Amino acid sequence: MPSDPRPSTVLRPPNETAVNAPYEPLPADHTLVLKVIPMPSDANANGDIFGGWVMAQVALAGSVLPARYAQGRMATVAVNQFIFKQPVRVGDILSLVAKMERIGRSSMTVSVGVYAERIRNQGHYIKVTEAQLTYVAIDDEGRPRPVPVHDLAP
User: Fold this and answer.
1) pLDDT tens, residue by residue, 87-109
2) What are phi and psi of 14, to 5 degrees?
3) Nearest alpha-carbon partner for 109 in 98, 125, 94, 123
4) List of residues 6+ apart from 20 with CB closer than 8 A
5) What is the mean pLDDT of residues 131-148?
6) What pLDDT, on the 0 to 100 scale, is given for residue 18?
7) Staple partner for 109: which of 82, 101, 133, 154, CB 3.0–4.6 Å?
8) Residue 24: CB partners within 8 Å, gap ≥ 6?
9) What is the torsional sign of CA 74, 75, 78, 84?
């Protein structure tokens, strides 16, 4: 009986090869806004996590701090920068941290860092992604409105 010439639909096992990247502590001037673990359904055929999945997590994490200032509806108006520094692996524990960079009349810019703890080396962080996003406070009709809070008391 001949073998099936079609490619297999089975995913490769998770990519566990070492990454040549320095360990870094989570930045003290950022706020931890999200922790998440990517699953096999989030992986591509190489066993690494889809970049689009990481981008979605960054969009969620990036909205946390601006929402405190907007105190109402807001929308993403720009992804100013997005850098994939290292691959994300199935089972990594991702810590997404954010820092407000600018608060304007109606817009807010936030930096987001994504740090991975490899499943077999927890407690050691590798920066895997960094991004900067801009959000705008909007009214019920979707028009820009002033950001009501410019300073949050600790």
Assistant:
1) 999 999 999 999 999 999 999 99
2) -55, 145
3) 98
4) none
5) 97
6) 59
7) 101
8) 115, 125, 126, 127
9) positive
Q: Find tokens 């490769």 and name the residue.
A: 12
Contact 12, 46 (CB under 8 A): yes
User: Rounded distance, CA 60 to CA 55, Å?
Assistant: 9
The closest alpha carbon to 126, from 134, 138, 118, 136, belongs to 118
Residues 115-121 have a mean pLDDT of 89
> For the residues 40-49, what does the mean pLDDT come to?
92
- Extended beta strands in 47-105, E state: 74-84, 93-103
Tokens of 74: 């807001």
Mean pLDDT for the stretch of residues 124-139: 97
| Chain centroid, CA 89 distance in Å | 14
pLDDT score, position 23: 87
